[in-house]
User: What shape does this take?
Amino acid sequence: MTLVDSEIESFNKTCQKKEVKEFNDFLNSIRPYLDRLHKSWSEIDKGITTESLKELNCSLNDMIKIVLDFYSNLDKDLYNTLINILNDEKTKKDYQEVSPNNKWRINYTKYEPDGTLCIGLRPQNNLYGLASVCHEFAHLLSRFGQDSTNSKSDLFPEVESMFLEKVFIEYLYNINFITEEERKTYFRFYKSSVNDKLQEIFYENDILNYLNGNSLTNENLKVLEEMIAKSPKAKDFYRRLSFMQNDVHSAWYFIYVLGEVISELLFEEYRKEPQKTVAKFKEYLGHTADIDPQTMLKDLTNKSLEEAIETYLEINKE
Assistant: This one.
């Protein structure tokens, strides 16, 4: 593999940013814990895909009604807030009808440049599509009323969505909408999909660790290629190396890993003390970016990140 000078210059400009180096140092400090998560998730059947999940015969309006019924059952305050958000004229809805073709379309909740809160729903016609509606509604609850440039800590945006998605799947099981096997399959699918993101983190972490702060050249690229060639997933390494010319995605992928760990601990609490956990969760929704990540983690789990991962692994022992 040979890169032209402009590609190498772009790669070095991206990878030598201060924030990239700092986040990679952070990943190195917790890499042993991430390795254990990866091992645990890798033992899940990799054959599980969205096609493995329960198929539905629902319109988008059907899905929205099911999800709103869940929120109404969960907590009246959350439900009323959500209804107010959806009815607010400042909330922009970018909806597309349920379709198998939506597999490649992204659901999203974001602020547009003019400050408008926008939600995009393009669900698939299966359990994943239904859960994605719940997921995005959770983002609405978190972001509504906050400054568009001052949302929660950059590491925490998936906590609320992943927690409520887990509670939603449990709710569907309790009302006999899905079977026990469909419930288990969904949670296996979810962990497997988060593990895919963790693997992408490892690719970038290994490449950055090899360079160790040095610039990439075509000379050391040859040595890096030898390292990559030994990997059973060499093709994916090359893909990630190519992507890193434009951006390093580790921090973005990490929010899903962190979200899975924290939401699982909250979900475990919810199973034992639902009302108390929902009350704590509602307090969390009021936090903004002036709360540092360690404080927020302590508020949610009363644990350090390492302790949270240890607890997660203990919960998920089979």
Notes: The longest strand covers residues 91-95. The CA atoms of residues 186 and 296 lie 28 Å apart. Strands lie at 91-95, 108-111, 117-121.
